[in-house]
Write a structure and sequence with these properties.
Layout lengths: L2 H18 L18 H24 L10 H7 L7 H21 L2 H4 L2 E4 L3 E4 H24 L22
Antiparallel strand pairs: 1-2
Helix pairs in contact: 1-4, 1-6, 2-4, 2-6
Length: 172
């Protein structure tokens, strides 16, 4: 994937998320379906996964061969109180993590971005892989946020790589 394409995707995805979360406080409690996460919970999840994605990217690039951990998303949501997390803090965490990721995507040399770490479910992941996966995961959830804010149902747009961020079955 070309660097400029990745950077454009990272920026466009960031801008879409920031537009989608520019809502009145009353909208953060809406969901896109019964039993689904609210906009507030989705935003908290996006903020945490952006931060974790940045950390995994940094491990791959700065510590080739390192292992990164997976995490239990529902336990984070419950244990960290996603349902009451302040939205401004989540937006700020997302935005600052994405700004740092964009800086690295724009400035690190190709050889460094080819360094890789090992994820227990995804296998070997290069810096390039993380740069593609992070906004793909965010694209998935911003659609949920937009649907919830509009009060409409959401339909997933799955790709062959959706399993890498837990949104679809792993190919056999």
């Amino acid at each position: 994937m070309q660097r400029q394409t990745i950077v454009r995707h990272l920026r466009a995805n960031r801008d879409r998320i920031l537009r989608a979360t520019d809502l009145p406080e009353s909208a953060f409690g809406r969901t896109y379906g019964p039993g689904k996460w609210s906009v507030r919970q989705l935003l908290a999840h996006l903020a945490d996964t952006e931060f974790i994605g940045l950390w995994r990217f940094c491990r791959a690039v700065a510590e080739p061969g390192a292992t990164v951990e997976s995490f239990d998303e529902p336990r984070w949501a419950s244990g960290l109180g996603y349902d009451s997390r302040p939205t401004r803090g989540a937006i700020d965490l997302f935005a600052s993590s994405r700004a740092t990721l964009l800086h690295y995507a724009e400035t690190l040399d190709d050889a460094r971005l080819a360094n890789a770490c090992r994820h227990p479910e995804k296998g070997l992941m290069t810096g390039w892989d993380w740069l593609a996966l992070i906004p793909a995961h965010a694209d998935h959830h911003v659609g949920q946020i937009e649907a919830a804010a509009a009060g409409t149902p959401w339909q997933p747009q799955l790709t062959a790589d959706s399993w890498k961020y837990g949104a679809g079955p792993r190919p056999t």
